[in-house]
Amino acid sequence: MIVLVFIGVFALVYYVNFRRSRKRLYELAARIPGPFDYPLIGSILIALGKDPLELVTHLMELMHHLPSPMRAWLGPFLLVVIDEPAMVQDILSSPDCVQKPFLYDFFRLSKGLFGAPADTWRRHRKLLNTSFSPAVLKRFVPILNEKADKFTHELDGLVSAECFDVHKLLARYTLVTIASTTMGIDLSGEKREMLEEYSSNAIDLFTACFERICKPWLHPESIFKLTSTFRVEQHRMAIFKKMSKKIIGMRQHVLGQGDGLERQDSETEDKQEFPTAKIFIERLEEISRDPSLDIDADGFQQHIDTLLFGGNDTSAQTLANTLLTLGMYPELQEKVYREIVEVCPGPGPIEYADLSRFSYMEMFIKETLRLLPITGLIARAPTKEVRAGNIIIPSGAYVMMPLLKMHRDKKLWGPDAEEFNPDNFLPERCAERHPYAFIPFSQGPRNCIGMKYGWLSMKILLCHVVRRYRIGTDIKLSDIKLSLSLVMKLNKKHLIRLERR
């Protein structure tokens, strides 16, 4: 009895001191609406018992009725949900909102650009930015054309009235292209099964990591390590790491050859024009030799892991989603096709200078990204108090910005926000909207480092595929439901059919 009383008194004193140390946080939190607050557990009940697909469906039903900004408590953690574009801009452009929440640590990429602490990220990002400069991107165009042409001819064997899942093929294709360009390593000779295993395993790995976020009882690492989920994660992580380890080994072999990379570079006609344009792996090798940057072997590998997965899965998903929507809207597909043959009438490679002329294609891809986003939400952890609109967000809070809601908000996109319409991205309509109403690759200083590369590679592949094939599908946009993950998942496979033009 005495022991229980002692424990009770200790817990009460601890709780009082805990509340007192966070007085400012509670004071500012009280000024923000919080419709889902419950004693002690906060807002956990909204996610309890729901898998990621059910949670998205539930939130989509609520989204037009929730206040913004909105307060929610995940146990002791304060979440501030913001979807007003001007306020989102205040957060993402603030130098005090570069840090990501501890939840990003669950993805085990805390040394790469994806999840690195703010100070580390600033130093590394500044030095790695040049590896995606226009000069470097221009060097990639011949390689991307070669890979896209080969991929397009591989599709010949799938031309029929039968549908097939194009995502698996695209996941392999984007992995090969990201390695060939940014890593200077050609994986096209590797076994197809190994390449496909990397992509499917990575999706399973990071989906499970995301699901852990929705289960607060698994947040403490000491508890998580006791579960079977942790053991499965370790197995998947070992498979995931094989690819970056292989690339590092192949890269060391190339460097050991002395001239292997130079032979590849000499095939690019822009090498003499841009002699200092270094690809990602070259720049990473260079900065890793600087002891002040503290990039150990694990950090080096995590940078490669981050770029490989980021460039592979996001591009593959966007391309697969776009081919699916092209099949859903044949009349719009023909507009994309006519633009392609007008800009590049011949069957040859796509020139770098022509890529900016595919305005309708870009509108089509953006509309696909709006309704089928790659990332469902973005989160930041302010290191100081930050003003967003008429509220002050305290240090210690986590800010969540639901792109899924923003991109379908009828206040921003009109009463037909759920309808597919590339004209939403006509220049005059874009001028009427806040620039942060559509941010598929995030925005501000911590946006996606490979965003321009992604646009380049996607446009080149779509040009090659669309001018050779007519795409069809039986899936309708209304059939598709989204599931939260690191990269948003569809409840349907990317089933399309091809017909030669």
TrEMBL record:
PROSITE patterns: CYTOCHROME_P450. Its cofactor is heme. May be involved in the metabolism of insect hormones and in the breakdown of synthetic insecticides. Keywords: Endoplasmic reticulum, Heme, Iron, Membrane, Metal-binding, Microsome, Monooxygenase, Oxidoreductase. Heme binds at residue 448. It is a peripheral membrane protein. It comes from Anopheles atroparvus (European mosquito). GO terms for molecular function: heme binding; iron ion binding; monooxygenase activity; oxidoreductase activity, acting on paired donors, with incorporation or reduction of molecular oxygen. It is found in: Endoplasmic reticulum membrane; Microsome membrane. GO terms for cellular component: endoplasmic reticulum membrane. Its main location: endoplasmic reticulum. InterPro entries: Cyt_P450, Cyt_P450_CS, Cyt_P450_E_grp-I, Cyt_P450_sf, Cytochrome_P450_Monoox. The lineage of its organism: Eukaryota, Metazoa, Ecdysozoa, Arthropoda, Hexapoda. This is Cytochrome P450. It comes from the Eukaryota. Belongs to the cytochrome P450 family.
